C-alpha cells in the first residue's frame, strides 16, 4: 500500500517501526552457532521459561510465538469455547486490528465490544456483560474477559482498576486474558511488580509483547493457568506457530529479559512520550487528549499543521479517531533529538 | 519432552537442528539498525520479491511466513473450499506432521491420502482420485493436489514425474500446491531450473522452504497465481502470520537467495547424504533403502547397532516406518567429519 | 429451563409457539404415502421451486432447511469469506439470537452491529460501514449486509427504505442478504410484490421464513444469485441440513405457498396485532412503543400489571429491552378471543 | 441430478426412499393442534426423553436433530477437540458420505480411516491407532472412536465384537461414539437389549437413527455421558439444529418409540432382506457377498442383468465397491411382493 518511504527518524506511526536492541541482535548471532534441539526443546527456550518464572515470582509455562496477534488469538482460543464470547473494549486490538484472528482461532467465538474511557473497560458495563444471557443457548456464552495493558490509547490500568475488572471476571466464573503488547510499558509506568499486574490480579494467560519493545520476531504467552499448557501446545502447532528453530525466537526473549533490558527499553519509550507531552504542552493551540501513561500521545492539531508535517516526511496516524486528532507513538529507539525535531516542526508550522 | 541433550554433532534426526548460515546472521544484524516500515512494506521484503522473480524467471508475489506449516496450510486454504479435498501422499508432511494445520486453516477440508513409492503420489491413484465423486454433494469435492519436493523419504520428483502429476491435476481442473520444504535440495539434485520445477509444471503456490536449509525463522509462499495474493494476505494476517517487523524474516531470505547461497547449502546437504550412502554401502550388513536423491538416508540396522548408536549420543529416528529401519538426515551444516564419525561408529558396532 | 407450562391460549411470547395450518398437516400426511427419491430429488421439492419462481416472478433456486438459523447462517456463509464482515443491525436475530451460528458457518467472519430506529439499519451508518477499512488486511473486509424484514421490533422496511439500503450495498460492491423470518408479514403489510421486496431491491439470498407462519419444521433459502447454488448445496450437506426425506419439509412449503395460504396466515397475524394495538390504545396508562406494522407489539406496562398477567399464566417477554417494556407477539393461530381476553386482563389489572 | 423418477416400488437404492409409518403421521397431525412451548421445552419432547430412559434402562438426555449427519457431527464435535482424531472405519458414513460434516462441526479434527471386514473396525488396527503418536503435538491426538451399528454393509457388530472395540477405546482413555443410523435393525437382528448394545459397552453418545426406519425428519442423539448435554445444546443451536417447533420432530420419535414400532419396523426391513437373500441363493449364478444381518444385501450380478434391471426401472447402487457388485436395501415399507417381483426379474434376466 505504502509506496514512498518517509525519512525514517520521523516515523511516529507505531513502535513496531523500530529495529532491535543490540543485545538482542548479539544473542541471535550467538544462538546461530551449532545445532540445537528443535521445537522449543533447546536450552535457550528452557532458560527463558526460568527467567519468566523469576520475573513473575512463580512457576509459569511459556509459549513462544512469532506475532502478538498469534499470542492473543491462541490465548483466547484456550479460554473460550466456540460458542462463547470474549468481552473486550470496543477499541481493543483484538476487536479491531487482527482481521478476525480471534474468531478464526476460537472457531467462531464472538467478540462483545464494551465501552469505557481511555480504552479501559468500564466496570459497570463489564458487570452487566459477564451475566448477559449466561446459560441461554440462544446466545453466545460469556466466557473470557480480555483487557489490554497498556491500552490502545496509551493509558495504563492501575492496580485498582485491574483488580476491579479481575474481581468482576472471577466472581462470574469467567477467565481473564491480558493483551500485554505493551506490558513492559505498563510495568515501567506503574512501578508495580509483574506479578501484581498479572496473575495476582487473576490473569490466566498473558500475551507478553516484546516485538514493539526491542525484539525482532518474538512474542510469548506467559501461562499462569498451567493446566492450559498442553492445549496451547497443540493449538500452536496446528496454527503454524511452533517454529522448528524456536531457539532463534527464544534467544531474542532471553536477551530481552536479561539485566532488565525489557524495562529499560520501556522506560525509554515512556520517557520519550513524556518529553513529547511536556513539549506539546508548552506550545499554544495544541490540545492534548487523554492520559499519556506509556508511549502513546494523542493531541489535536490544526489540519494545515498535520498536512505540513506529513509533507516533511513525518509519519503518524491522524483523523482515525475523530477529525483533527493525531497520534504519535514513541519507542525504545526514539532519541531525544527525534522528539525535539518533531516539537520544533509542530511549533514552526503552528507559527507559520 | 526431551530431557537430555545429545552431543550436538551427532544429531541426524532432522535438518532443522542446524543453526543458520553466517551470511544470514549478518543480514539480520544489518537489518536491525534503524527504523523501517512494518508489515512487509519495507525495502528488504520488496527486494526478496524481486530476487524470487529473477530466480523463477517471471513476476511472482511473496508471502513471508514464520514456519513451513504455515506456508503449507495457508496455501491449501487458498486452493480449496472448506468442502473440498486435498489429494496428497499418505506419507506427506501435511497429512501426518502438522497436527491438522491444513484442516484448521481450510475450515475443515479433508486430506485424502494416496499411495505411491518413495512418498511420490502414484499417477494412477491420482487419476482416479481427481474425479472421485466430483460434483456429488455427499462427498468432499476434489480441489487441490499437494506434492512434496523433495519427498519425505528424500526422493525427488523428476521433471517427467512432476509433469505427469501436474497434467492430471490440470486436466481435471484442480489446483496444484507444492510443499517445497526441501525445494532447494531438489533443484540442486536435479539440475533443473526453479521455473521448470514449479510454475512451468503447473504449480499455483509453492511453499518455499528455507528454515531447514540455512535460515532461522523464515519461510515463504511463492505465489504464481497472483490472483490469490489478496486472499493470502488476509488469511495470513488472520492467522497471526503477518509479522510487524517482517524485515527480520525478509533479511534472512534475502541473504539466502543472494549469490546462490540457497543452492550451495542444499548441494552440501545432498553431498553429505551421498557421502553417508557411499560409506554405508561399503559396510556389510547395512541395507540401504529407497532413493537418496536429496539429504535423507534410510537404511536397515540391526537392533543392537541402533541401540549402541543411541547410547553414544547419536540422535535419529528409528522403527517408525518399519522395525529395523533408521533414518539419517544431513544438513548444510553437516561436516565431512560428522559423517565419517557416524560411519565409523556404525562399522564399529556392527563388528562388535 | 421452563418448568411449568402456561395455559396455552395465553402464550404471546413468540409466533413460534403456534401449531401448524391444517392444509400443511394434510400435505404432510399425503406425502407420507409411498416412496420418493431422497435428498430433494423428489417431485414435491421440484414443485416448491416452481411455485417460488411464480411468486417471485423469475427463476429461482431453492434450498430447503429445517430452521431459520440455518437459512441465515448458510446464506451468510455463501456471501462472505471468513475474513469478511457482516453488517447488520445491533438488534438483529443473526447478531443476538443464534448463538454465533453465522460465525460458525462462515468460518469466523465478524458481525458488525449498526444502529437505527425500529431495528432498521441507519443508512448513514451503513454508508460509513461499507467502506470502513476496506482492503486493509488488519481489519475484516466489509462483505455482506444483512437486513431483517419485518424487523425484530415488528416494523417493516418500506420499499424506499429497502431501496436505499440496497443501493448503498450495491454501490460499494457488497452482497445483500435478507432475513425474512417474517417476510410474509412484511409482504402482507406493505402490499408490495415479493419481487419488489427482494431481488428487485438487490437481495442476493433470502431466508424465507415459514415456521413462524404456519409450517412445522420447514424454512427455505430463496436463491436469486443462482451462481451460489452449488456452493450452498455443499455447505448445506456439510452442515447436516440436507434431509434424506426432504419431501416432508417440501410438502409443508408446498401447502404454505398454495392458494395464498402464506399471505392469509400473515395477514391474520398482522390483524391480531392491530386488534391488540387498537385495544391497548383505548386503555389509559398503557404506552405503546414503536411501529406495529406486522405481528409484534411493544408497550409499557406498570410492573404490577406485568406480574399479575404472568401470575394468570400469560407468557410474554418483559424487561429485556428496558424496564417496564413488554412485548406481545401474535400469530396466524391467534384468535380474536385470545386478544380480547388479553385486553380484558390488562384493563382489569390496571384498574385493580 | 436424477431426472426421471423410477417406478417407486422398485427403489432398492436406500431405506431413505420410504415414506413414514402411519402411526407417525398421525402423531404429527395430533401435535399440530394448538400452541406449545418452543425449542424442546414442550411436553412431547419431555415424553420422548422418558421413553428413551425406559428403553435404555437408565436416565439419558436427548437431543432432537433433523438429520443423521447432524447427529453424527454434533456427537463427534462434543467428543474430540479440534486437534483430535476420530478413528473410524474407512467405509463409514462419517468418513465418506457427509461431505466433511464431522470436520466442519469439530473445527477441523481429522478422521483416521481404519480397515476391517464387513465395515467393522479391525481390533488390531484400532489397538495401534488409539496410541499412535498420542501426546505428540506434531500429530492429531487420538480422541474418539466411532463405530457404526449396523455397518454400512449391513453387518451387525455382535455383543462380543462391540465389547472388544469398547474395551480398547476405554482402556486408552478415548471416547466412544456409535453411528446408529440403523441401530434398530441391529437390536432387532441381535436380540440384545438397547442398553447392552450401547452404554453398557461404553458408548458415550449414540446417533439414534429413525429416519431410515419410519420417521420423516427426526433423528436424535441419545446422551449417556450427561455431562456433555450443555455443550451439545449450545452446539446444536449454533449449528441451526434447534428447531423452534421441536415438538413436530419429537412427535415422530414419540410414535416411533411407542408400542415397539421402531423394532417392528426394523424387524420387517430385516425380514425383507432375508427373503431377498434366500431367494437369491436359490438362483444359480448370483453370488451373495458378506453378511446380511440387517437390511442390506450385496451380491454379484452379470452386467447385462444389472442393465436389464435398471432398464425396467429398478433403482439400486452398483459398481461402486467393485465391478459387478450391486447393493439392494430394504425398508420397513418393503412388501413381500416387491421382493418377489425383484427376484423374478433377476431370474428372468439371468435366464434370458
From TrEMBL, chains A, B, C, D:
Signal sequence, renumbered to the chain: none
Listed cofactors: pyridoxal 5'-phosphate
Keyword annotations of the record: Lyase, Pyridoxal phosphate
Protein name: L-threonine aldolase
Role description: Catalyzes the cleavage of L-allo-threonine and L-threonine to glycine and acetaldehyde.
Record EC number: 4.1.2.48
Catalytic activity annotation: L-allo-threonine = acetaldehyde + glycine; L-threonine = acetaldehyde + glycine
Family: Belongs to the threonine aldolase family.
Domain Aromatic amino acid beta-eliminating lyase/threonine aldolase, first and last residues per copy: 12-287
Gene3D superfamilies documented for this protein: Aspartate Aminotransferase, domain 1, Type I PLP-dependent aspartate aminotransferase-like (Major domain)
Pfam families named among the record's database cross-references: Beta_elim_lyase (PF01212)
Top EC group: lyase
Stored InterPro entries: ArAA_b-elim_lyase/Thr_aldolase, Low_specificity_L-TA_bact, PyrdxlP-dep_Trfase, PyrdxlP-dep_Trfase_major, PyrdxlP-dep_Trfase_small
Amino acid at each position: 500500500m505504502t509506496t514512498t518511504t518517509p525519512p525514517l527518524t520521523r516515523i511516529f506511526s507505531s513502535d513496531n517501526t523500530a529495529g532491535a536492541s543490540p543485545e538482542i541482535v548479539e544473542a541471535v548471532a550467538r544462538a546461530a552457532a551449532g545445532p540445537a534441539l528443535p521445537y522449543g526443546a533447546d536450552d535457550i527456550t528452557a532458560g527463558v521459561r526460568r527467567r519468566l518464572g523469576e520475573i513473575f515470582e512463580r512457576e509459569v509455562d511459556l509459549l513462544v510465538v512469532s506475532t502478538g496477534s498469534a499470542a492473543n488469538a491462541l490465548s483466547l482460543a484456550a479460554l473460550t469455547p466456540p460458542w462463547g464470547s470474549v468481552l473486550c473494549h470496543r477499541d481493543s486490538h483484538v476487536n479491531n486490528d487482527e482481521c478476525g484472528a480471534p474468531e478464526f482461532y476460537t472457531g467462531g467465538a464472538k467478540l462483545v465490544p464494551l465501552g469505557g474511557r481511555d480504552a479501559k473497560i468500564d466496570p459497570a458495563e463489564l458487570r452487566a456483560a459477564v451475566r448477559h444471557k449466561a446459560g441461554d443457548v440462544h446466545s453466545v456464552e460469556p466466557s473470557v474477559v480480555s483487557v489490554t495493558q497498556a491500552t490502545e490509547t496509551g493509558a495504563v490500568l492501575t492496580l485498582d482498576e485491574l483488580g476491579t475488572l479481575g474481581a468482576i471476571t472471577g466472581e462470574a466464573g469467567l477467565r481473564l486474558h491480558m493483551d500485554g503488547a505493551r506490558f513492559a510499558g505498563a510495568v515501567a509506568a506503574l512501578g508495580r511488580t509483574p506479578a501484581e499486574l498479572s496473575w495476582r490480579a487473576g490473569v490466566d494467560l498473558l500475551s507478553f509483547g516484546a516485538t514493539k519493545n526491542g525484539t525482532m520476531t518474538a512474542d510469548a504467552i506467559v501461562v499462569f493457568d498451567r493446566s492450559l499448557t498442553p492445549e496451547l501446545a497443540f493449538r500452536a502447532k496446528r496454527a503454524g506457530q511452533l517454529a522448528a528453530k524456536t531457539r532463534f525466537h527464544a534467544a531474542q526473549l532471553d536477551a530481552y529479559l536479561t539485566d532488565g533490558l525489557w524495562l529499560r527499553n520501556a522506560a525509554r519509550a515512556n520517557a520519550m512520550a513524556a518529553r513529547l507531552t511536556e513539549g506539546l504542552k508548552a506550545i499554544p493551540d495544541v490540545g492534548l487528549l487523554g492520559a499519556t501513561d506509556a508511549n502513546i500521545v494523542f493531541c489535536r492539531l490544526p489540519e494545515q499543521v498535520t498536512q505540513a508535517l506529513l509533507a516533511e516526511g513525518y509519519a503518524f496516524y491522524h483523523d482515525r479517531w475523530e477529525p483533527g486528532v493525531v497520534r504519535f507513538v514513541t519507542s525504545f529507539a526514539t532519541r531525544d533529538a527525534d522528539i525535539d525535531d518533531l516539537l520544533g516542526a509542530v511549533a514552526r508550522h503552528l507559527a507559520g
